Amino acid sequence: MSNRAPLIAFFPEASFGAALNCVAIAQSLAELGAESVFVCHPGFSGVFSQYGFKEYHLSRDVDVSQDETEDYWQEFIERHTPHFSLSPLDQLDTYVGPTWDAIVETVEKEDGSLYSLLGRLSPDLVVLDNVIMFPAILRLSIPWVRVISCVETELADANVPPYLSGLSVGDESAIQTFNEAYLKAVEPAWHRYQKFRQSHKLPVLSDGEFLEPSPWLNLLLAPSMVRRERSEVLPKDKFVYLEGCVRREAPFNLPVFAKDTFPLVYVSFGSLGAIDVALMQRMIRVFERIEARFIVNVGGFLENYDNVPDNVFLGAWFAQPSIVKLADLFVHHGGNNSFCEALYFGVPSLVMPYCWDGHDNAIRAVETKTGSMLHRSNWTDEELKDHIESLLDNNSMKKRLRDNARVMQQQPGSATAANAILALCSK
Amino acid sequence: MSSEKPVRPKSNHIELAKKLIDIVSAKGMSVGDRLPEKYFADQCGVSRTLIRSAFKLLKERGVLDWKEEVGYTLIASSHDLLDFQDGLPAASESALADQILLDRTARRIAQSVSVSALTRRYNVTRQRVLSALQKLQSDDLVSQSASQSWVFQTLLDNADSIKESLEYRLVAEPAAILANGFKLHQQLAVSLRKQIESFLKVPVGGADLQLFIQQDVEFHLLLATSSGNRFLADSLTNHHRLRQLPNARISLTDFRMRQAHMEHLEILTMIESGQFDAAADMMKVHLRLSQSLRPSTVNRGSPPLFK
């Protein structure tokens, strides 16, 4: 047995949530003496190194000029912004199906590069935080851990509503309709992906599935306060629940506001949400009428804003955990990382979902009385104002969340994950 | 003892005196330390004549001493400095100028603004607004357009200006180190090194972003003003002043702040040991690593977003 520190290769998907969730686990692993490296999309260049981790980039298949990329994004915004206001069912054909197709295309393009990279790195373990399997991982026969950080519904069960549906348990007819529509919408991408798997002599997955559970270890980012009752209990040696997975960030220095005693509201819909500048501007006009301080993440679109009210502060990027920790309310899109950070710091959520896991977390916030939900764009100014003010005034919810946060912070998910990973390495 | 009625000092001297105290405090200067006029003139972006006037005011208040062969030296302790600063009369146009600038960086007022609009917003006289704008104009932060409106200079708050800032610094900062007349201000370098070493001793997770930004700007100003080339020193000093303004785009991890400070110390060591070429190269590496690194891909399945 070698005495060297175990080498863990993290491979998060190209989204903030997965990337930063993995940073939290890698920080805990570093405290335990393991070495973590990140394999990532070139678009995430520098993200992991600024936390002190080595990065290895998958190669780009094609050279795309900046003009072409900007044209693509303009077209993407125009095409998809209206889709984000549709119901989860109506998003299946307009957004979910095409997105699965893009995900499969990414796997086809990048799997070869991943195979070479992992072969060269020769890690003791791969941690995959993604929604799809890359055949390279199975072909190399390296033990791998699956992180289910997107949403708990990703792992199907008779007592769990369908993934991405935004439905509640018991709504049988709607569940059946959604299941049928989902399989139909993802069918072309699913067939394309199974064909790719078969080309690498890997087994075909069940209808609509793109990723199997790991035979070694699966980590579920599902704090007990919002966890679902499953009909089939997951084996504890293979499935470990995490009570949030929050990375360490430098403390946040609050900007000066005219009324510094007002409650603090943090608003972030992630970078994708920041694309809808018109909606953000509409929300900001409502914030102006509320007795609260608002810190709003507007992504790369800061220059589109002017005449910002005195009680609103905009930024292109914030070290989110450091602000959520100080906030009295978190308005977000229902990304699982955001939802779990709100729970970890005992902050109520107002979920205004755009797509994907946002719908499932929005309904879960209502079911578990950890927040409320509102359509992302279909509201009157008074409705948005009322939602925010009633959550800020809901003292019983605040107390329950604060009590729960103390419990979560005593058993941080990042440390639980790191211990489980190291235990697997030593087997 | 003179029985003359004391003359109220000019507001720009008061303001400059406050700024000098900020610099002296930030550097952790001690009783007996010398205050080089040129360095402070470069740091504040003003003439040496103005600096002498502010030094004189500080001497009258018992903060500095002056001797023929030595020049000005510090005689007040750090605690007394704070008391002294509190005791200075407020320069109201300066406070208004700061507020206008803060509101611009928070995008609460537009890039082009009229005096009337500012008069209404701050509920003050037209004359006070004009004085505040003239103060900002003297710092090159606003200019008056042909249509009589006032236009703010481009700040480091958008992707294009940040990119251009990096391109400029990659040329100018190594050039400052390689300038013929480069001579490091030893005393200030020693003081800055101490501050950085003290920053690095803070436990992981406790790094203060505002303190880091202040020390980072101090470091880069130190090298610019040590260049011995007035044009390089002036242009870099003006540019670093923009970096000191509140900036919604700056957010650094604890790790990167420490790493950047280690790079600062390494550059200082190289300069102190006469390795100027290596220090200039290291500066380039440092600037490239200090770019704001954020994902250019935003969602699963989507291509990179260059924004």
From TrEMBL, chain A:
Alphabetically sorted, this entry's keywords are: Glycosyltransferase, Transferase
Q: Using the record's annotation, list all stretches that form the Erythromycin biosynthesis protein CIII-like C-terminal domain.
A: 301-416
**Which is one GO molecular function term here?**
hexosyltransferase activity
- Coiled coil segments of this chain: none
Protein name as it appears in the record: Glycosyl transferase family 1
Name the species this protein comes from: Marinomonas piezotolerans
Supply the source organism's classification. Answer: Bacteria, Pseudomonadati, Pseudomonadota, Gammaproteobacteria, Oceanospirillales
From TrEMBL, chain B:
Keywords from UniProt, A to Z, are:
DNA-binding, Transcription, Transcription regulation
Does DNA-binding appear among the keywords?
yes
Q: Does the keyword Glycoprotein apply?
A: no
Q: What are the HTH gntR-type domain coordinates in residue numbering?
A: 10-77
Matching Gene3D superfamilies, A to Z? GntR ligand-binding domain-like (1.20.120.530), Winged helix-like DNA-binding domain superfamily/Winged helix DNA-binding domain (1.10.10.10)
Q: Which GO molecular function, any one, fits this protein according to its record?
A: DNA binding
Offer one Pfam family short name for this entry: FCD
Checking PROSITE patterns in the record gives: HTH_GNTR (PS50949)
What is the protein's given name? GntR family transcriptional regulator
